[in-house]
Amino acid sequence: MADNDRPAWQQAASPLLLTFRLRIELAAPEHAETFAEHFARNREHLARWEPRRDGAESVEHWRVRLNGGLVDFAAGRGVHLVALARDSDGPLIARINFSQISRGVFHSCMLGYAIDGEFEGRGLMYEALAASIDWMFETMKLHRVQANHLPENERSARLLARLGFAREGLARDYLFINGAWRDHVLNARLNPRFDASVFAAAVRPTS
Question: What is the residue extent of each domain of the chain?
Fold first, then answer.
């Protein structure tokens, strides 16, 4: 198949998104030290909201994981992003993961995100997600982005609502976090500009 016959999302270049305060780019092995420092610095901050990650404070762990993220991007399975200060090489401000990308009749993915505790309350997570979701809709041609949060995570609930996500339900014992199975609120946002021709091509019979 010639390149110009491939779907647009299979031809997408690595994202580099510039917002007013942030530089958002594809997470890569060269970010390994930044990731290890982020997890060491935010050990207590993240423990309430995320499953435990063995080796998360190891640079070598992240070299391997981030290399796997590049493989995911090349295969169209995931887009793993890092948000940094726009005009400096400071610490990792936020992580954004679009995973479990599914095509066919679905064109959907799961969204996960986290911000460094030092940068909470400044609107930076909203700024990063707004730009990243727009890119996923426009460039990766997704129809739906799903995101879940703990019921008690009111900050995340407000963030998703501000971004246009709608609550769709509650998943019981969804993830094992901080020593117990935790319920999660299910949310989703649809692409209002989804191109129906993308969907038609995805479901066209092959014979």
Answer: 3-203
- For the chain, list residues with pLDDT below 50: 1, 206-207
Class of residue 104 by CB neighbours under 10 A (exposed 0-12, middle 13-18, buried 19+): exposed
Fold classified for 3-203: Aminopeptidase (3.40.630)
| Model confidence pLDDT, tens digit, residues 4-36 | 555 666 666 789 999 999 999 999 999 999 999
**Nearest of 130, 92, 96 to residue 113 by alpha carbon:** 96
Answer yes or no: are the C-beta atoms of 189 and 143 closer than 8 Å. no
Distance between CA atoms of residues 172 and 103, nearest Å? 27
CA distance linking residue 46 with residue 171, whole number of Å: 21
Please, what sign has the CA dihedral across residues 139, 142, 143, 149?
A: negative
Label residue 98 left, alpha or beta by phi (over 0 means left) and psi (-120 to 50 means alpha).
beta
